[in-house]
Structures are given as structure tokens and as C-alpha cells.
Write a sequence for this structure.
């Protein structure tokens, strides 16, 4: 099993959710986050004074899946979240030791 | 026939009184405008405290003007202290028949005091102690403002030395010397510049907000928390200003005064529009962005600029006067920041710099005034209010302190002064 963590542009969230639903992903977790990568921050202007916004708002999407779905999930997120401009985000993949569905006690791939 | 005349006179009296009261209520509503404008332009951690200052200063102003302010401003003698003699009928028994109820006059005057005081709260926002501010409000609305009001609208001599009403000799008419006097229709100088002078004195003793100016002289932005609220506040002030200037015609119940009121409404609105356009265009030229807060300040600057003489310009002149005010306010805000005079809402620029401009521009459209008389009047008001305020702030600073501690400023004065946050579920520190 794998945990796929994607940092994406907030306005791409709907596209990513739909793309994941289409390939049969059953659930995702979404968090509003802030951070910076190569896009860095940007400057804003208030009453003539510039100020730097260091951390930009992004959305973190977490998907727990069976390993067989990994390539499809990565492809879906990459396609859906891509704008071709700087700041599109990143996808992190990590191994998932165990998953338990709290209601039934099911474990492993049955629970994702 | 005599009955008919008497009925018409009574109708006029009733109508003028009613008009005066409605205009006073409109000016009262400006307190809401200032509260929203200031709450929008401070950070969310200082919202409750600035709202508390705004409602409390209104109450203090009304009370102090009732206690002694009105009596000082309109030397009515001892019977005006606590307004004990004000129930008198305006028609019967008076030497000169009044055209409206005396208590309506008090009501209209008292909301102007609150306006002057509201100007101060924005300039000292986010770092001044609540109670120090309210102690100053007691002195400002009870003594400082009524004194300069007595020299202008009250017609008294300045400390018995000279009269602002007859500053400059003009010409002989029928064997009598006529004078150019200081003319400030609804108070660009008397109300707005006076409030700004008190604010400037406070800011100089208070210092800038922490983090506003960097070590190398750079100006750091401290963005306001809620621009919809600031916009609403500006619209409320714009509305209230029709009472401020329109009511200052003092009468409605004749063709002549009704026409005057209509001209004042038209020009007041034109100047606000001109001010906004002037400010937003200059902001765009300077920053390449349409800065909303500058546009809002611009509309208010247009209103302040026209307040000294909304009755004499044409609509086009009023628009131009407003537009110049809007340009001035942007330049003034940038200049004050260079001088490290920190004014979170731009009150000193809007009401002080543009207030002075408003007073000085009157002679262009009003033959009964002169630049010298206008300048001397404005100088008298500024020197008195600034010096008296500086002394008052200085005494308060020595006795109880005027600034919160650095840690309290970081935490936000909402918690440290009022014990509650404006947005408990989400507050940016």
C-alpha cells in the first residue's frame, strides 16, 4: 500500500478530486497548507509600501491506495493539477504499513 | 391675517427644527462610519479595542459637551452648563426669534464634537492605551475643541486679543469699515483639522507601531484586516456628510435656504467623487495598482476639502476641489511615512492636510473671504489645538502612560485591553 501526498494549487482541487474519483479512488483527505518551493513568495502592495508574502497558500491532498493503483493515481493528479506554470506543486509517495477501517476493523487493502 | 403669519412662522420653525435634527442624526451616523473604517484598516488582533474606543469616545464627547463644552463654545453663561437652561422655547421670550429649537442646536453641535474626536482614534490605533485615550477625549471634547469653536462659530475673541471674524480690514462701506473674516462653513478647519492636530500631537508622543519602519528607513506595510468593512465605513461617512454640510446651512424652510441646501448636497457629493477619482488615478500612476485604501481616503479627502465652503462653488469647481484633495491625500500619506509619522488609517492626511487645503481654497469661490484671513484662522486653530493637545498627552503620558508594552502590542490590544477578540475563531497574530 502507498500513501500519495500531493501539494497542489488550490484552484485545481476540484479537478484533482474528479480525476481521482474516475479511476476509482474511494477517499481523500484535504488540508489547506502554506509553504514555498521554487515559486518562492511574491510581493504585494499596501498604501504604497511593498511587502513580501513568503508562504503561499496550497492544498495538500492525501490518498491511501493499494500499490497496484499507484501509477494511475500519479498520472491522474499530474494531469489534473498541471498548469505548466511555476508553483504547480509536488507529489510525494511513501510506503504505507497498515490501514484499519475503524467501523469494521478491516485491515490492509480491504480498508483503503 | 395675523393668525396666518403666525402659522407660517410656526411651520417654518417646525420644519427647520426637523431638518436640523435629521441632519444631526446623519452626522451621528458618521460615528459608525469612522468605527467601520478604522476597524477595517487595523489588524484583526486590534479590532475590538478600536471599536471600544469609537463607541466610548462618542459617549464621552456627548457627555462632556453637555457638561461644559457647549457652554464654553457658545458663551451662554452659567445656564448652559449641564444644559440646564436649554429647554427654553426658541420663539417666545427670546430677544431675537430663533428659527429652530435650542436643543436641536445642541444636538447638531454635539455630533460635530464626536466627529472631531473620532479622527484622533484612527491615527493612534493599534498601540495606544484605551484609558489614556479616553482621558484625552474628556479634555479634547470638554475644553480644547469648545475653545477654538468659541473663537470661530461662537464669535468670541481669541483670549480677548483678536477676532477671527474680522481679521483683515477690507473697505469703507457707508462710513464703516468692513472686514474679511475667517470663513469655515461646516468645519474643514474647525472640526477636521482640529481633530488631526490633536491626533498629530498624540502620534508624535506615541511613536510608530512596532515593525512599521525598518532600521534602514524602509516603510513596511501593515495591511488592514477587513477592506469590505473599511469600504462600508467610507460609504457611511459619505452619507453622513450630507448632514454635516447640508445641516450647516442651518435652515430649510424658505426657497432661499432650500436652494442653498440643495447646492450644498450637490457639491458635497461632487467633491467626494472627485476626491476618489483623484486619489485612485494618482495611486495607479505611482504604484501601477488601484490601491483601494487610497481611493477610500481620497473620497474622504474630497469631502473634507469641500466642507469649508460647499455653498459657493459650481459643481465642476467642487469636483476639482475634491480631486485636488484626493491627490493631496495620497502625497501626504506617502510623505508622513517618510517622516516616520505612523498613521494607520491616514487620518492626519485626510483631515489635517486636506482640512487646511479646504480652508485655503474658499477664497477662490467666495468673495467674502481672503487668503490671509483664512490662513490666520487656520493657524490659530492649529496652534491652539496642537499645543493644548501636546500638553494634555504629555501629562497623561507622565501620569499613566499612553502606550501599551511591546508584548501587549504583539499579542494585540484586543486581549490585553478588552479581554476579548473580535474574531475568536480566527485571529492572525
Amino acid at each position: 500500500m502507498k500513501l500519495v501526498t500531493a501539494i497542489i494549487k488550490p484552484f485545481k482541487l476540484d479537478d484533482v478530486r474528479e480525476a481521482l474519483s474516475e479511476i476509482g479512488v474511494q477517499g481523500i483527505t484535504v488540508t489547506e497548507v502554506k509553504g514555498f518551493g521554487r515559486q518562492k513568495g511574491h510581493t504585494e502592495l499596501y498604501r504604497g509600501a511593498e511587502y513580501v508574502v513568503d508562504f503561499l497558500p496550497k492544498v495538500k491532498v492525501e490518498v491511501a491506495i493499494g500499490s497496484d493503483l499507484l501509477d494511475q493515481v500519479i498520472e491522474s493528479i499530474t494531469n489534473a493539477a498541471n498548469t505548466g506554470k511555476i508553483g504547480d506543486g509536488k507529489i510525494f509517495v511513501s510506503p504505507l504499513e497498515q490501514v484499519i477501517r475503524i467501523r469494521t476493523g478491516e485491515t490492509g487493502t480491504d480498508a483503503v | 391675517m395675523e393668525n396666518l403669519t403666525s402659522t407660517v412662522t410656526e411651520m417654518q420653525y417646525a420644519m427647520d427644527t426637523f431638518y436640523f435634527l435629521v441632519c444631526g442624526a446623519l452626522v451621528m451616523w458618521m460615528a459608525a462610519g469612522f468605527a467601520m473604517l478604522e476597524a477595517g484598516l487595523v489588524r484583526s488582533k486590534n479590532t475590538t479595542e478600536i471599536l471600544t474606543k469609537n463607541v466610548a469616545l462618542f459617549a464621552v464627547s456627548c457627555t462632556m459637551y453637555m457638561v461644559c463644552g457647549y457652554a464654553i463654545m457658545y458663551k451662554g453663561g452659567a445656564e448652559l452648563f449641564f444644559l440646564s437652561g436649554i429647554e427654553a422655547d426658541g420663539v417666545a421670550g427670546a430677544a431675537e426669534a430663533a428659527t429652530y429649537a435650542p436643543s436641536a442646536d445642541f444636538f447638531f453641535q454635539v455630533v460635530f464634537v464626536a466627529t472631531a474626536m473620532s479622527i484622533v482614534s484612527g491615527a493612534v490605533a493599534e498601540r495606544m492605551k484605551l484609558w489614556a485615550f479616553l482621558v484625552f477625549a474628556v479634555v479634547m471634547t470638554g475644553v480644547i475643541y469648545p475653545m477654538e469653536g468659541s473663537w470661530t462659530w461662537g464669535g468670541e475673541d481669541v483670549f480677548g486679543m483678536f477676532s477671527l471674524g474680522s481679521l483683515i480690514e477690507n473697505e469703507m462701506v457707508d462710513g464703516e469699515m468692513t472686514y474679511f473674516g475667517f470663513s469655515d462653513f461646516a468645519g474643514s478647519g474647525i472640526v477636521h483639522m482640529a481633530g488631526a492636530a490633536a491626533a498629530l500631537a498624540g502620534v508624535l508622543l506615541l511613536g510608530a507601531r512596532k515593525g512599521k519602519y525598518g532600521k534602514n528607513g524602509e516603510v513596511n506595510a501593515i495591511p488592514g484586516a477587513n477592506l469590505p468593512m473599511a469600504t462600508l465605513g467610507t460609504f457611511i461617512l459619505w452619507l453622513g456628510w450630507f448632514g454635516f454640510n447640508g445641516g450647516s446651512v442651518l435652515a430649510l424652510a424658505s426657497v432661499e435656504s432650500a436652494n442653498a441646501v440643495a447646492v450644498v448636497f450637490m457639491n458635497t457629493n461632487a467633491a467626494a467623487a472627485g476626491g476618489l477619482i483623484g486619489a485612485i488615478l494618482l495611486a495607479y500612476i505611482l504604484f501601477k495598482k488601484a490601491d483601494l485604501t487610497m481611493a477610500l481616503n481620497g473620497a474622504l479627502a474630497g469631502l473634507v476639502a469641500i466642507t469649508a465652503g460647499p455653498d459657493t462653488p459650481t459643481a465642476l469647481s467642487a469636483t476639482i476641489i475634491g480631486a485636488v484633495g484626493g491627490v493631496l491625500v495620497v502625497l501626504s500619506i506617502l510623505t508622513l511615512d517618510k517622516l516616520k509619522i505612523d498613521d494607520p488609517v491616514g487620518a492626519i492626511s485626510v483631515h489635517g492636510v486636506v482640512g487646511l487645503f479646504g480652508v485655503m481654497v474658499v477664497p477662490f469661490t467666495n468673495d467674502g473671504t481672503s487668503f490671509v484671513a483664512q490662513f490666520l484662522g487656520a493657524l490659530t486653530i492649529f496652534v491652539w489645538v496642537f499645543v493644548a493637545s501636546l500638553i494634555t498627552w504629555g501629562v497623561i503620558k507622565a501620569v499613566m502612560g499612553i502606550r501599551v508594552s511591546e508584548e501587549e502590542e504583539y499579542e494585540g490590544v484586543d486581549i490585553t485591553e478588552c479581554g476579548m477578540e473580535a474574531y475568536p475563531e480566527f485571529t492572525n497574530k
